[in-house]
């Protein structure tokens, strides 16, 4: 696939920055589509400025492009965002870009969706892409609607639904967990047993490359998750191993921690700690994708590389 021209949106974001470097390293020429004029990101072969809500110059932007990787969008971490904003940024912008791609005869459209298009923040059983999609919030609904828009446009597409992503530069829950692991004292988390699937940003980049290289049309959504879900003590232990420390966990009943979280107004944080979300990436595995490393090794490497 070396030398193919890929148009990438969201190249200045957490995932997009990693995709730009990973695709360039794999021999792709990457043209970044930017919303506003900025310095061309390192690794890009060119850049075009445009607004996906008003795609006036997309014909020029997509000239000669073999595939699109669309990672731009409004993140679910932006709590309080109106549903209309999610729809405009995640659904309608994706539809606009896909329609332009179809007119430009782009070969494949790879959309960075989310596991939240498949399920809520937790799930009782294993989440599989063959299960009915049942998003529970505005963000997830906007991502699922974007996938449905792609199916209507009539081009070769694939939507990747990653679970919680970790890696250099991450913000949100994973950044908070790393800060917690860096604390110098023992943590009262030893009795949390709920498991969660994670995926490193490097493994996610590999999934994008797998989707780009697939020889046959895909035309569906694929879950992206590493195959070894961990519980909270195992995550903290892996992070602290990367920091050269012992796990340092104390077995305190989760109910007591839940009470403390409720009193502190952190009920949502406790819910994430105490519930499971395990997903399987069967579709990607069938295409030949495999993670860069185990989740334990990935978390340890993340802790080592991320500046304090």
Summarize the model shown.
The chain is of the alpha/beta class.
Account of the 3D structure:
It comes from Methylobacterium adhaesivum. InterPro entries: Epimerase_deHydtase, NAD(P)-bd_dom_sf, NAD(P)-dependent_oxidoreduct. This is NAD-dependent epimerase/dehydratase family protein. The strands form three sheets. This protein has a seven-stranded parallel beta sheet, with helices on both faces. The chain is α/β, with parallel strands linked by helices. It is globular, with a radius of gyration of 20 Å. It has eleven helices and eleven strands. The chain has a domain of 188 residues: Rossmann fold, CATH 3.40.50.720.
Kindly report the name of the CATH homologous superfamily of the domain at 5-165 and 199-225. Answer: NAD(P)-binding Rossmann-like Domain
Largest sheet: 7 strands, parallel
Unreliably modeled segments = none
What's the CATH C level of the domain at 5-165 and 199-225? Answer: Alpha Beta
| Span between termini | 38 Å
């Amino acid at each position: 696939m070396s030398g193919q021209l890929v148009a990438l949106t969201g190249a200045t974001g957490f995932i997009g920055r990693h995709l730009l470097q990973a695709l360039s390293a794999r021999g792709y020429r990457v043209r970044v589509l930017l919303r506003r004029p900025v310095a061309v990101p390192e690794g890009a072969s060119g850049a075009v400025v445009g607004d996906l809500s008003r795609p006036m110059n997309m014909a020029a932007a997509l000239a000669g492009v073999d595939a699109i990787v669309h990672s731009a969008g409004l993140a679910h971490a932006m709590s309080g965002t109106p549903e209309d904003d999610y729809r405009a940024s995640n659904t309608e912008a994706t539809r606009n870009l896909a329609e332009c791609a179809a007119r430009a005869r782009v070969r494949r459209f790879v959309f960075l969706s989310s596991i939240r298009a498949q399920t809520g923040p937790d799930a009782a059983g294993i989440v599989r892409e063959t299960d009915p999609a049942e998003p529970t919030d505005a963000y997830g609904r906007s991502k699922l609607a974007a996938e449905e828009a792609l199916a209507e446009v009539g081009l070769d597409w694939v939507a990747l639904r990653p679970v919680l992503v970790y890696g250099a530069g991450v913000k949100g829950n994973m950044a908070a967990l790393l800060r917690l692991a860096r604390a110098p004292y023992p943590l009262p988390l030893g009795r949390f047993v709920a498991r969660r699937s994670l995926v490193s940003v490097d493994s996610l980049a590999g999934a994008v490359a797998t989707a780009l290289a697939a020889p046959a049309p895909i035309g569906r959504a694929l879950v992206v998750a590493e195959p070894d879900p961990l519980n909270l003590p195992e995550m903290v232990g892996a992070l602290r191993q990367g920091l050269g420390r012992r796990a340092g966990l104390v077995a305190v009943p989760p109910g007591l921690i839940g009470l403390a979280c409720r009193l502190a107004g952190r009920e949502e944080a406790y819910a994430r700690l105490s519930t499971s979300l395990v997903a399987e990436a069967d579709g990607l595995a069938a295409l030949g994708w495999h993670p860069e490393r185990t989740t334990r090794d990935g978390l340890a490497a993340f802790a080592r590389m991320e500046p304090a």
